Amino acid sequence: MSTTTDRKWLWIGGLVVAVVLLVLPFLFKNYRVFQFNLVMVYAVAILGLNILTGFNGQFSLGHGAFYAFGAYTAAILMSLYHVPYWATLPVAFVLCFAFGFLVGFPALRLAGHFLALATFALALAVPQLLKYKKIEGLTGGVQGIVLSKPEPPIGFTLFDQPLSADRWLYFFTLFVAALMFLFAWNLLRGRVGRALVAIRDHPIAATAMGINLPVFKSLTFGTSAGYTGLAGALGAIVVAFVSPDSFTVTLSIFLLVGVVVGGLASIPGAIFGGIFIQYVPNIADSMSKSAPAAIYGVLLIGLMYLLPTGVMGGLRRLWARTRAGTAR
After folding, report:
1. Rounded to whole angstroms, how far apart are CA atoms 215 and 219?
2. Structure confidence by residue, pLDDT tens digits, 264-275
3. pTM for the complete prediction?
4. 144 — alpha (psi -120 to 50), left (phi > 0) or beta?
């Protein structure tokens, strides 16, 4: 199959996906649309972690902390300072980028499981810090912060149908997620992406080629944290509520699970990771009310057995076999 044919099918597939995404929220009730919104939020967060872990080889078990930081940034700006919800996203990205850069710089001396343990400590500490009494005026303490879901602009309709708050947020979230995926694709397909992979695979050779490891690693950590923080802000807007107990260490583990399930160093894989961490726990809970975690673990083990390189790795192998069969 020629490259021209591949591009043709890629364009056709992209158009079909675009049409499906535009029509999807009108085929389901508000609760399902709300779940779709969370899938896109988690996909952005997983993409941020994949930039760090999949492309640069730095393992983090603390990205739930950046997600919480972004969520509380949006919640505080909206509830106390009446900042428009859309304006909180760039603020969350910038603040989490700076936070991630500051965390990543001293972590340069750590690698592998040592870095994972250091970031794990961060994920453990943040929920407790959010309950600290002296900052309850900002964070709401254990009670958290309740927000109002943004309503669509007055008179805004699509396909001659008025939009509910969840459907409006669906299109808003879809737009933001598309921008973040496009930015990641442009960033990782060029020199920066090759430098990150070189650092991951051969750090000594990368240094010999003139790549500044401390700068690249710190900026990668910051960018990854910025993505996850923006996803946290978007999640706070979608859920309309934040509390410390929503951002336990389990969230950090789930994000890492999403990276592995979707496929390491795969940009589209983040979407499959978001689908997994949103729906599989619900499926496990419906299968067994007494031991949903056990069912979740069995499903995860089964998926890793069938697709050891993640969903995108399995799709690549299937595509390669299809091309090989067509070429015969």
Report:
1. 6
2. 999 999 999 999
3. 0.94
4. left
